[in-house]
Each structure stands twice: as C-alpha cells, then as structure tokens.
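Task 17 of the worksheet. Students: predict the tertiary structure of the chain below and write it out as structure tokens. Keep your answer in the requested format; marks are given for formatting as well as content.
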Amino acid sequence: MTCGGGAASAATFPTKPIRIVVGFPAGGPLDLHARLLADKLQAVLGQPVLIDYKSGAGGTVGAQEVMKSPPDGHTLMLANTGVMVINPALYTKLPYGTLRDFVPVARTAMQPLALLVNPKLPVTTLPQFIAYAKARPGQINYGSAGNGGISHLVPEMFKNATGLFMVHIPYRGSAPAFTDLMAGQVQFMAESIPQAANYHRQGKVRALAVTSRERSVALPDVPTVIESGLPGFEVVGFYGFLAPAGTPKEVVQQLSDAFKTVLGQADVRSRMTDQGADPAFLGADDFAKFLSTELARWSEVVKKSGAKLD
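Model answer:
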C-alpha cells in the first residue's frame, strides 16, 4: 500500500509553507533568482514560499540543513554549480553527496560568468589585462564568493589557461567580494552576469569578457573569452532545486511541474534574462542525468586545477 500512501501525500501536498534554503547571504545572484521564482511558485502551489539564508562553507551549511529536513517536499535547496557539482570534487570531507543525499527537482537556469576588473585598472580588454597581470606576478588579487565555488574555480582555470600568477581572496558570498572589487581591494573577479551586468552598466566594475560560447544578451558589447583569444574557454554555471533524499516521487513530480509552469511564464523568462540567466528548465529525471554528467566534468576540472579543500 506504500504507493497509495505516496499518492495520498501528493494529493494533499503542500500542506504548509514551502521553505527554499539558499546557502549564501542575501543580496547575491542566487537570492535574486530565488525571489524571482518564489512569488510565482506561491501562486501555483497555493502556499506561501519563504526564502531562508543559511550561508557558510561554500554552500555546505545550507546543504546540510536541507539534507536533514523531513523529506516531504516542504523544504527545498536552491543551489548553484559550486554546491551541486564542484564541492564534491573539491572537498575531501564533504558531508553530503549530491545524488546520494538529495533528489533533483528541477534545473531552472544556465548562467555564464563575466570576467571583471576594477574600473581604475588601465585595461579595457582581456588581452590587455593578461599583459598587465603578467607584468605584475602575485600583485593582482582576485575575489570570490568563497572557497570552492565557481567564482573561485573559473579564475583558477583562467590562470591555468594564461600562466598568470594571481592571489585568491575568498569572501563570504559575492556581495562583499563585489564591494571590495569596486573599492579596489581586489582587482579581478569572475561572477555570474546578473550583478556583473548591473555594476558594469553603472561603471562600478568593468566587464572584459563573458565565459559562454555566445555573447550575453545582458552584456551584448562584451566579447566572449574565446573571442578574446583563449580558444575552448567556455564555462557556464547553472541553478537548480533539490529536495532531501526520500521525498516521495509524486511530490517531486508535482514540484517539478510547478517550476515548469513558472518558467513557462513570459514575464519570468524576460526578468530572468535581464538578470543575466538563461531560462533552462529540466524536469526531475533529466536534471538527475545532467547532474551525473556535470559531476564527472567538474571532477576533471578540479583535478586539473590542483585545487583541494578540507
């Protein structure tokens, strides 16, 4: 009779507010994404959708919070590439396994990054920055949203591709890293496009290149890294929602369908594009397949970069 019980739980789901846990501070790109979807999700599911910030350890604190929550669909994790597929390769003692401790619900967006500099730096192109940094080994600091995230690893890949020596300064989230980039405490950063595009337009940072194969709609005048002379340099992050392992299949399906409905709405899609993310829905099963491919790919990237964290 277990499947009957599962069907019953899906029939009555959700019975209380849905909590979306974000493993990073408020004000970052994940937070923007969560807020964009939360209101719409509320309308589809008929229950309030609350955002809960549990920052720390590159998203690991938030992941543990969700992993230990009841597997009833009322607690979800909104995670990025770092949490889902980079951390497992990077941390020797990671307290969670992405496909062991969670069930994929939906991929919601793909997101290129922008390579940014402080606007006072006397460079306007990526080749100019490479030459500038080569002449100053160890004098250029780059900020990231924390050890082990994509904003840490992409500059490492960039260093490998160019032979540069830059110093990594990790922050607790992208908001404080941006503050120091704008103030000139760090000179370089790789960060997802929503905020990067905003700050670039305001002249607070200068975007030199984007990491996708095609130029970004949000930064149409900014060339790709490939166009700027680094062939094959393509890195795109992604966002997605996961539930604790053991969440009933019917509940996962209901949540997945809700995300599909929300991402089908024209205003959500255009606002997401404005934020620099490309709407890219995948349902539960396809997202699970996608994650297993990405886990293998990033494991290779991390191995090459030599990065390891405990």
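Marker's comment: Confidence is low (pLDDT under 50) at residues 1-8. The chain is about 45% helix and 20% strand.
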